[in-house]
Fold:
Amino acid sequence: MEKGHIELGEILFVALLIIGLAAAVFIFTGQKPVYLSEPGNATITAPSEPLQEETPVPGNSTNASKPQPPPEQVASPVVNATIGSILEDGLSRADSRFYSNVETGQYDINTYKWTIGKQNDSPDSIPLTPNDLRALDVRFNSHYVDSLRGFAFRVYSYSGYSSPPKIYGVAAFISDSNPLKGLNSTITIQYDPHPEGSQIIEGCKVLSASEFETAGGTPLEVYDIECQVMYGANP
Structure:
């Protein structure tokens, strides 16, 4: 080699020495040399996020789609009583309602009672018969009811005054279908066996309703009523 000139072999030696030093530095520091990466294939990975659990939509669960069992029906209590005693119990409730709100004074109290058979018979002793004309004596909105087995009411009149009397009554049916069931308005009752002739009792509304069964398994429904006025059907 002449002085002032660098041989080709010396250049290659220096170049290889520099590359070897650079590779040693990157290997020692744990970094990959940039020149070893393949151009166009670099991938940036975003930090991984925890998966979010899916919130169930109300009403879409498997259990919600299953049909629900119907509510259990509660059996009606069984009563072993005569139709007369049922009416007497209703009249006792009528007295309680009257005396709980009565003003001091003298009152005339008259009781009226009707049964389709004898008072000491059970309510279902006479079977339900369509178009039973024996029930014609008591009519609700001008219609007699085959299932009516007893009707009674008391009239509480204040002596010496012309103010309308208080009228409380009770009706018993051996059917779960009757004109007082679910009644939300007033009804007119015509009572033919009155000693003064057929009477019209207006403005009658249901105060309470009770559902029973007789000892023979027949439905029995008892209604307490209050009416506003009573007058003769043919004045």
